[in-house]
Every structure is written in structure tokens, then in C-alpha cells.
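User: Run a structure prediction on this.
Assistant: Running it now.
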Amino acid sequence: MPDALAPDARTLWKRLGSDGTLRRLYSGEAVDPAFGLDPAALGELLVMLDAEHDLGTTLSVCVQVATSLPILIGRDGPAAQVAEDALDGRSVVAFAATDADAPGSDLTALSTRVELGDGEVRLTGAKQWIVNAITADHAVVLARHRPGDHFTSFTLLLVPTGAQGVTSVLARTPFFAGSGTGELRFDDVRLPASCVIGRPGQGLAEFARRMSAERLAGGLWAAALCRRVLAGTRDRLANRVVRGQPLWQDAAIRQRFAQALLEQRRLAALCAAVCVPAGPGAVRPDTSLGATMVQAMLVKAAAAQTVHMVLNECAQLYGAEGFTAGGIQQLRAEAAMFGIAGGSSETMLAGIADHAAELLEVR
């Protein structure tokens, strides 16, 4: 398991900013416009984070680099300054979409509301299960500015968490330590109109576009996590002797392990196909917005299934030792988020089915 004495999330974020890691994600020829970042650099970062930190701390970084920052980079006004501060590690940014009054996968049902005025906006509502809610200096908030389910009814706002009327409450959960997960409440928060990100009505479309990067990040992270867990499980099986023979020599155990390894390699291959590096002679996948969103849904759905299968199998192979504090059973419970955060597996599969015809085309 990662080092329990690893630095806290804010300290880690400051380090990643000061050593240039964060800026490298969004600069250079390898940046994929479809994701707004360099997929290979993102993958390397997630491998490092997963190896050195617990799940909650890694989560606190993952959401910022894959969603919050791509939304803010390249903007004007306050968003530009917050993006610069975040890239340097001086500021933590939360992404607040999941509404307290609506299922997470049905964002068009959210009730958090913003009243848009000429020089001022007023925000009321609450967001729950928000990563970095407790530690963030700013939050990118998705709110509705008019009734109805149409995608143009929603707007993104940049909200200072220290503004009057903003309250953060730590989530009541034993999971995701270090992630700062909690609820953000907005009680008639009054902000300058410059806090609106982009034009009113573009919020949900921008959110959907940026979710592709978050879903890719989830797949890359899941592949790294499963690889690490499998390597640790194999070492344990090789070193635990029962009746004079290492457990690794048991044919039934080897077969079960091999099936889990096969699932991890499938996920890694799917991620690699989406992350083809740019450059002369590279055969790039279709990078249109629609195609990118479908590929991200495939990765997200595969990641959830792979994590579930691999961690269940490895937890079983660990036996009673898996229930030790911070052991694989806790990791297995926390990793269930791969099937929920960023869109549930059921939502991903429904979207994949909607695009079945083009996915089955011969190319």
C-alpha cells in the first residue's frame, strides 16, 4: 500500500506546481486538443501518484488536473489568475457539479441556481460529494440560470470558497482520506459578474467536453492501480508457503490471478489506443468532440469493470489479511468510486449503446 506518511494533498499540490509538473501537462506538441492536456504525461503522473499516495490524496489531484484546470486555462479575468495560481501550486480548485438535490448522473435535474445581473450574480444551493470541498480556495460551480432541462439552461461560475455565504462541510465517510471531499453550500452568495466562466448557457456543454479528460484519467489511474495491486498480490502468493509449497504454485490460484491480469492488460491497451502520441507518422484516432466522448465512455466503463474484478479477486487471494487497517479490503471499497464518479457505469453503457452503429463500423 502507498506510504501512510505521505504529505497531505495541499503540500503535494504545491510540490507538483513548484517543480513544473502541472504546467507540463498543458504545454508542448503532445497536448491533445480533444482532452486539453498531454495524455501520456497525465498517465505518468497518475502512475507516480498511485505508487506513492493513498487513493484519497491521488483523487484530490486527479479531479483538478483533468477537469478544473482545463476549464480555467486560456480564460480571461479572474479565471486566468486562478489558473496561474493553481498551475504554480499556490491555489487548490474544486469542481462542483454533483447537486445535493439530484442524482449525480442527472445534472439537468440540479437545483443550484444563479441569478444573472448586469454587474452581479447571486448563487443559492448546495453541492455534495465534492472533492477538495474542504481544502479548495475556489470552486468551479455548475448552476442553472433558468428553468428547464435544456443544455443551455446551465452556467459555470468561479466561486471563492471564502466568499460570504459559502460554507464547506466535511463528508461523513471513512473513505477517501486526504481528498477533502465534502459539501459546498451557497446561501445567497453575491459575486461580481466576472465570475461567470464563458458565456451564460455554455456551462453544461463545457462540462460534457471536459468530462472526457476526467474519464480518461480514471482509466489511466485504474490501470495503474490494478497493476500495482496485482504485482503486490503476486509477491505475496510467491512468498507465502502453505504445506511446504508457495501459494503461487497452486494451479487454481494461478488461473484466477491470470484472469485478473488479463483484464488489467485489456484496460491498459484500451487506454493506450486513445492516448496515441502526436507526431509524424502517428496514426491518430478520430479526435472530433463526439468521437472523443465515446472513446472516453469506453475507457470509463472498462475501468469500472476492471477495478471491480481485479480488486475483488486480489482481496479474496489475500484472505483475512486483507481486512487489516488500510488493507486491500478498504482499497476495494474506496475503488468502487470508479463505477460512480464521473458518470455511473450504467450511464456509460447507455451512451455506448447509443453509438453502437459507429463503433461497429469497419475502419
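The chain has a mean pLDDT of 90.
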